[in-house]
Amino acid sequence: MTTTVRAIRLQEFGAPEVMQLTPVELPAPAAGEARVRHTAIGFNFIDVYQRSGTYPLPVGTGLGHEAAGVVEAVGAGVTDIAVGDRVAYMNAGLGAYAEARNVPADKLVKLPDNLSDEQAAAVIFKGMTAQYLVRHTHAVKPGDTVLVHAAAGAVGQILAGWAKALGARVIGTAGGAAKCERARAAGCDIAIDYSQGDWVRQVRDATGGQGVTVVYDAVGKDTFMGSLDCAQTFGLVVLYGGASGPAPAIEPEILNKKGCLFLTRPSVFPHNADPARFRANAKDLFDAIAAGHVKVEIGARFPLAEVARAHEAAERRETTGAILLLP
């Protein structure tokens, strides 16, 4: 049965006001799909880049990667998801900024009883990013020394706390005293203000000159070359974002000169493209939340109709913790 829902659509790109809440006809779920009635929608800063046109999208597109809700209909062939299930997703394509939507059922994960819909929407994208970084890109273990850039950010705080719980010594960088304090509260043994002085030297000094086992760098342009100088011999530099802009291009020989380093540029989506692996990774995240290794902090809630206000708050750095949109 077709139903009408409200969803954000972009007919142009620019300031937050370009996001329009529009009636959309939602057909019955096709074979292999489930209709999810959203109860909470997650926000990520990539949404700002896509809305503004920094990351180009087709005109008429929706926005949003993650949400939680309740299944209200399923299409033919769907056997592992049922009407009434509480579910979340983060890899079903754009369109989470909506009251409801149809998504491939194999992109959904059922939520445990101890995790609320709001918590799931707040953490599923950011937590799954941290999960592949500490479990797959580099399996963090006792004895490791880990450097987390932007350790006061949403993913950075999860990374710091999870790596600490796995037995690593964690060094974090952040901009300013308040953010350094937040990084320490998240699990960093040492927090370095990279707006003050030579942060590379401070990292090297904190490791007795050896450098760290692995660097997690989501900042990019402003930190990347320094990240190479912070890794120990045979260390790993993980570039997983570019908050300050794209990292500079380098000649491969520089990795040899700086200590036979390993360099990778991973992404959350390939790590969760296979449905079975996605659900196993999600269970790992949910178990880490239950154990207290990952904490879910919700900083602000906005009605979906006031999505422009949510984007403005994010761009002005007015909130800490996750931002939620509520249909």
Automatic annotation (TrEMBL):
The lineage of its organism: Bacteria, Pseudomonadati, Pseudomonadota, Betaproteobacteria, Burkholderiales. Belongs to the zinc-containing alcohol dehydrogenase family. Keywords: Metal-binding, NADP, Oxidoreductase, Zinc. Residues 14-325 form the Enoyl reductase (ER) domain. InterPro entries: ADH-like_C, ADH-like_N, ADH_Zn_CS, ER, GroES-like_sf, NAD(P)-bd_dom_sf, QOR-like. PANTHER family: QUINONE OXIDOREDUCTASE PIG3-RELATED, QUINONE OXIDOREDUCTASE-RELATED. The keyword Metal-binding applies. Pfam families: ADH_N, ADH_zinc_N. It comes from the Bacteria. The keyword Zinc applies. This is Quinone oxidoreductase. CDD domains: QOR2. Its cofactor is Zn(2+).
